[in-house]
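Aim 2, interim progress. The first record below pairs a target sequence with its C-alpha cells.
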Amino acid sequence: MPIKYKKLGNVAIVRVDIKQPGLEEIVQKIVADNPHIVAVLGYRGIYGEYREPEVELLWGKLPETIMHTEYGVHYCLDPSKLMFSLGNQFERLRVASLVRSWEIVVDMFAGVGQFTLPIAVHARPRLIHAVEINPTAYEYLLRNIRLNNVEDIVIPYLSDCRELSSKLKTKADRVIMGYFYGFADFLPYALRMLGESGGIIHLHQLIKRDEIEQLKQKIQSLNSSMGFTTDILTSRVVKSYSASKIHVVIDIFVVSQDR
C-alpha cells in the first residue's frame, strides 16, 4: 500500500494510528525517500477551541520553527503546536483569486495566516481583518505578516471573532469562516460583520459525504431566520477527511431582507 504523507518545510507529516503495525517501516521508508527532512511527525487530528494538533515525534529532532513556502507566500510555524492543512492548498489560492482590490476581508479564524497571507500577497485588497484566538498562532501570524511585507494590508487581532464582530469599524465585503465545526454558532457573527450591501461568506464545514444539499438548506434556513436572503454561489469538496467525511466549502452571497 502506498505511504501517504505530507512535507511541511523540512518535516514529514504522516496521518497514522500511532499503534498500527509496521509503523517503524513506514517511517524508515519516508526518511529514505526524503534525505533532507529532519523529523517525521505522526498526526492524529485537531482538537479543542484552539485547534491544536495531536502529534507524536516518530523520528528525528523537531526544529522550534519551520519555514514553508506556497505559491510565493512564506509561513513560519511550529507544526507540533499549530494546525496547517496542506490539503487546503488549492482552496487558499482559489479564494485569493476571487478577492478584488477594493474589498475589505475578515478572516474569522486566521491561524498563522493560511488564508490571510495569500489574499494579502496576491490580491492586495483594501484591508484584511485577521482574527485569531490562540495566542501561539497569533504570535506566528504577526511574524508571517512581517515576513511577507503585508503590514499595510493586514490588521491582526488576538480575539474571539464573536466578541470582535460588533466592534469592527469597517464592515466586510467578504468573510472567511475557515473553521468546520458547528457553523451555526459562528454564522450569525459573520453576518454581523458584513456591510449594508451584503457580501460573500466562504463557509467551511466537515460533513458526511452525502450531506452537501442538507448543509445548503441549513445555511439558507438559518440566514432566513435572521433576516437575510441567501444565494448559493458554489460548493466544492476541499478534501477527503476520512472514509465517511469530507471537508467542503460553500460560497454564499447574503444580503439583508430589509435592504
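The second target in this work package is listed in the same format:
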Amino acid sequence: MAAGRHPLAWTRLWRRLFKPFLSRGEKASIAQAIAEAERGTTGEIHVHILSRTRGRDPLSLAQHFFHKLGLDKTDGRNGVLLLVSHLDHRFAIWGDESIHAKAGETLWAQAKKVLLADFAERRYAQGIEACVREVGRELAAHFPKN
C-alpha cells in the first residue's frame, strides 16, 4: 500500500491555494461602497490589493501607489488609498495632506480598528467595505460635494 492524500483532499487544497482573495461579487460590493462613499464628497477613495509586499513596508508601498495612481493630484488634496497585501496579512491606509490635517490620526485609528475587526474574523471584503464607509463619512464631513 502507498501512503498519500486522498484525491478530494488535493482538490480542497488546490482550491484554497488558488482561490482569489476576493470574489467577483465581493469586488462589486466594494466598488459600490466606494461609489456610495464618493457620492457625498469631493474626495477620492481607492482600494489597491497586492498579493505580497515582498519585504517592503506597507505604508511606504501605500505612499508609492498613492502617487502612482495620481491621488496626490486631487483638487482638494483629499484622496485616500487603502492598500491590502493579502498573503502577508498586512495593510496600510494613506491619505493626502488635507484630509490628514482635518481628520488627523483619529480617522486612521478608527479606520484601522474597523478593518481589523472584520479581518480577524476572515471577513475581508466586509472589512474593506466598512473601512471605505468610515473614510467616506469623514471625507463627506470635511469635503462635502456642493
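Residues 97-120 form the longest helix (24 residues). This observation will shape the mutagenesis plan for the next reporting period.
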